[in-house]
Amino acid sequence: MKNQFILLALSVILCSTSCKKNIIVEDASINAPSGSNAFGNVTVISGIGDNTSTGTGAGVTEINTNTTWTADKIYLLKGFVFVSNNATLTIEPGTIIKGDKATKGTLIVTRGAKINAVGTVEKPIVFTSASAAGARREGDWGGVILLGKAPVNTGTDVKIEGGLVQPTGKNDKDYIYYGGIDVADNSGTMKYVRIEYGGIAFSVDNEINGLTMGGVGNGTTLDYIQVYRSGDDAFEWFGGTVNAKHLLAIGTWDDDFDTDFGYSGNVQFALAQRVATVADQSQSNGFESDNNGTGTDQTPKTSAVFSNVTILGPIKKAGDAFNANFYHGAQIRRNSSISILNSIISGFPIGIYIDDTKVVTANSTSTNFTSGNMVIANNLIYGTKNTEVLVSNTAAAAAIEAKLRADNVFAKDLFGSSLYTNAYLYGSDFGSGATLGTPNFVLSTNSVAATGAAFTNPKVSGAFFTPVAYKGAFGPTDNWAAGWAAVDAQSLAYTTPGAVR
Q1: I need a surface site. Which of 149, 327, 456, 468 has the fewest CB within 10 A?
Q2: How would you class 283 by CB atoms within 10 Å of its CB: exposed for 0-12, middle for 13-18, buried for 19 or more?
Q3: Concatenated DSSP letters for 76-124?
Q4: Residue 46 lies in a domain
Q5: Percent helix, strand, coil in the chain (nearest 5)?
Q6: Strands 88-91 and 350-355
């Protein structure tokens, strides 16, 4: 109670000098973790759209000076919380940050600002739901949004999706826009970070993703990041050049890896594990890629390169039932030119779809493939229920399918279970009985994926890519998800600061 009176007094003083000062409100009475007596360990970060918190400063918080969040507290995001004014938000290893559902709690790192969220295997940083253990689900809060100054093919000032609103009286381009001309722009570092139960919907088909990246440059470091049970996409890149390694997308609602607006970065070692019953009305895919919403020829073209990716679809074995909203292992459309190499896609109704149904220049998506700008090679496409290769350009379909079959291995009767030690176990959100447990994504003994990866193609011969012998995200020995990536996030209390495992 003392802290509240002191804060109230400080608020009055601050407001008398500048009524719109930005304050972090630490209030023991607001949404303290259930069962916790350490009320002083809860810090409410009150942002745009929060009209529920007490204390002057509610609804006007932005982090506009260098700030550190420490692991001895639990932070609660209420509304849209912006890191702005070129400030850096540093988050200590083991810190827990919760997002409020009613106010769509979301963390936004604006252009010029940075996040320095570097956890460890033993002490990952966790963004998660504010609901109690056992009551959490997708869309419980917003997510994490990084906005940068790297090139985007729709302009240098592009508004991010998700329904964000800038602080009252402030220039929206300073808060909710992205894009620019700085290829090497740096939005900071995220490493050993979990983002759980995000993806709240602002409106139908206008949701915040688990991790949204708008115009993020390749000066940014993204490594060892798990998005768990997102209510929209797990990872979505809107333009930019940022590279990433060691990504996990578990139990995603919509797409796992979505690329748009000229994203041209590189991604290596990424795994998605789908759940047969969980899919979105907009069609759920492993990869979904567009040059932009109307398939124009604008540049930079979406040309990201993915290597060593594993996407375990909803079909674990022949005859499995699954949500009818699942569609493609990879849908490449609207003049996108992404490349996928050394990867594994298993268990989708349709394997690969090269889609020209919405383009400005006729057949531009398929032309990206036939010209060699789009490379899909050295992959295993397993367990497809219906069509392994679908091409909307009927004139080129036969040639494209022949090339894909020559450069990749297709096997309808094989699934991820033939490659991995035990890939189809789930936490209590999705598993029960024989399917409840900790998955092991390490390759099984004598797995055909253990050899055959190649890094001679110019798409993957650069310094970013680590040459390995195996296809897919994991090899026969190195379980890089162990320790930091929670499998059963639903059972973790998150009521004690620093208790993230």
Answers
A1: 456
A2: middle
A3: EEESEEEE-TT-EEEE-TT-EEEE-TTTT-EEEE-TT-EEEEE--SSS-
A4: no
A5: 10, 30, 60
A6: unpaired
R_g of the chain, CA atoms, integer Å? 22
- Smallest CA-to-CA distance from 280 within 307, 297, 247, 258 is with 258
pLDDT in tens, 309-332: 999 999 999 999 999 999 999 999
Q: Identity (one letter) of the amino acid at 292?
A: N
Q: How many domains does the chain have?
A: 1
Query: Using CA atoms, how far apart are residues 287 and 344, in angstroms rounded to an integer?
Result: 12
Say if strands 221-228 and 244-250 run parallel, antiparallel, or are unpaired.
parallel
* Residues 166 and 66: beta-carbon distance below 8 Å: no
Return d(Cα 418, Cα 449) in angstroms, integer.
Answer: 10
Q: Which residue type is seen at 114?
A: K
| 307 inside domain | yes
Residue written as tokens 């969220």? 117
Q: With beta carbons less than 8 A apart as the criterion, state whether 339 and 376 touch.
A: yes
Domain of residue 372 covers: 82-90+107-126+134-491
Tens digits of residue pLDDT in 177-236: 999 999 999 999 999 999 999 999 877 767 899 999 999 999 999 999 999 999 999 999
Residue 146 to residue 160: CA distance in whole angstroms: 10
The answer to whether residue 40 sits within a structural domain is: no
Q: What is the rounded distance in angstroms from the CA atom of residue 382 to the CA atom of residue 312?
A: 9
Write the CB contacts of 17 (distance below 8 Å, at least 6 apart in sequence): none
Q: Evaluate whether residue 190 is within a structural domain.
A: yes
214: three-class secondary structure by DSSP: strand
pLDDT tens-digit map of 119-142: 999 999 999 999 999 999 999 999
